[in-house]
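User: tokens in, sequence out, please.
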């Protein structure tokens, strides 16, 4: 492998290659340019590999793929989690592969994830560049994908002020109201439970984050924005699927260029992402101007902004808008998926259902619904 070559091997290969290219350049100039470009790419890759792994230590096992492109064609386009599970049966719970010169590590167990991301978070908290999603489609607002550094820290600080253990109590009334509405719909139309769940979390987050009340069905324009954004993200969220993620310079190709469908896809995505970040933020600003804004995370962030002419005002505004959007995209679908999984678990396990019901009955009796203050008494739930 490239990383196992010594500096001496490489310098002798460089001398031979340069001599050969010079001898070619007289009779076949274009061929020698192309050869030169390939050669520079190989040396650059070798240097990058040496920087990443100077002692040439072995990587964990995983699909090896083909020379130069690595496992690029094995990166799953659909249901990546199922493919990773299959790979883990063969390779274990740390799976490593290379694709187009980039290194990927799939962490396939909670124990490994804790070891790396909790216990050693000081060295594993950075994020790799994602040209397609972040640079081209505008997902740079998502602090989950921002590189470790002061921009990310400023986002986290703003987020944490409104989503820490003490702050979240004040959102209980919003959650309780949305929950009662959800239970009512579930009782009247149980078959639509999937839609009701989607609407429940959309309603909670839009109200908490923007003070916006969404309509009771899934046709709400704010909800359409988020669904569109998540759909446009689609497979872009799968690390390494797009060639531009491996060769970032491709992001400068103009979108009219033949074969640059990814650029046209990215342009469509960027419009959706911009709408997602800007529209609700502007709506809150407008309500604040009219004195009609409901209390919300974004309203509080806007109220705390430095004065208009302050040098960091524009950046702080961007952070406030980003925090709103990331809370929505990170919180609505994830929470909905957990509740859907909970429904599945309960439907497949009648004993657990009966046990949970008995515990609730013992705690609150038959006349009222449980609320957040009952949580300490509901030990098994
Ligand atoms: C059951 C529900 C949820 C699940 C399973 C979940 C899962 C996750 C996971 C796995 C990450 C790490 C992503 C990464 O590092 O690439 C993450 C990050 C994040 N989540 Fe959640 N989440 C949930 C609910 C929420 C809610 C309700 C919010 C907001 C109100 C939220 C906001 C965030 C944010 C802002 C980040 C990025 C944090 C950072 O990188 O500093 N999540 N979530």
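Assistant: Sequence out:
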């Amino acid at each position: 492998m490239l990383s196992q070559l010594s500096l001496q091997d490489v310098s002798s290969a460089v001398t031979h290659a340069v001599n050969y290219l010079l001898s070619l350049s007289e009779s076949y100039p274009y061929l020698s340019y192309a050869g030169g470009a390939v050669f520079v790419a190989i040396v650059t890759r070798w240097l990058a590999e040496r920087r990443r792994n100077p002692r040439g230590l072995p990587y964990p096992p995983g699909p090896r793929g083909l020379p130069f492109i690595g496992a690029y064609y094995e990166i799953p386009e659909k249901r990546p989690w199922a493919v990773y599970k299959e790979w883990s049966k063969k390779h274990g719970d740390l799976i490593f592969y290379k694709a187009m010169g980039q290194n990927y590590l799939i962490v396939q167990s909670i124990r490994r994830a804790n070891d790396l991301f909790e216990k050693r978070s000081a060295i594993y908290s950075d994020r790799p560049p994602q040209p397609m999603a972040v640079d081209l489609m505008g997902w740079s607002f998502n602090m989950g994908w921002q590189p470790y550094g002061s921009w990310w820290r400023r986002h986290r600080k703003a987020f944490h002020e409104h989503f820490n253990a003490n702050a979240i109590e004040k959102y209980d009334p919003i959650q309780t109201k949305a929950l009662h509405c959800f239970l009512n719909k579930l009782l009247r139309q149980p078959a639509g439970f999937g839609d009701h769940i989607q609407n429940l979390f959309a309603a909670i987050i839009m109200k908490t984050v923007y003070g916006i009340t969404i309509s009771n069905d899934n046709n709400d324009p704010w909800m359409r924005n988020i669904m569109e954004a998540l759909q446009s993200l689609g497979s872009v969220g799968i690390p390494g699927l797009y060639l531009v993620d491996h060769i970032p310079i491709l992001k400068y190709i103009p979108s009219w260029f033949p074969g640059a469908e990814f650029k046209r896809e990215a342009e469509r995505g960027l419009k959706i992402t911009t709408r997602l970040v800007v529209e609700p933020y502007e709506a809150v600003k407008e309500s604040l101007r009219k004195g009609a804004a409901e209390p919300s995370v974004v309203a509080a962030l806007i109220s705390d902004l430095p004065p208009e002419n302050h040098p960091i005002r524009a950046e702080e505004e961007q952070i406030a808008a980003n925090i709103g959007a990331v809370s929505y995209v990170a919180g609505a679908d994830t929470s909905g998926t957990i509740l859907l999984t909970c429904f599945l678990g309960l439907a497949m396990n009648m004993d657990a259902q009966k046990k949970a019901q008995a515990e609730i009955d013992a705690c609150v009796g038959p006349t009222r619904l449980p609320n957040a203050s009952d949580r300490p008494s509901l030990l098994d739930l």
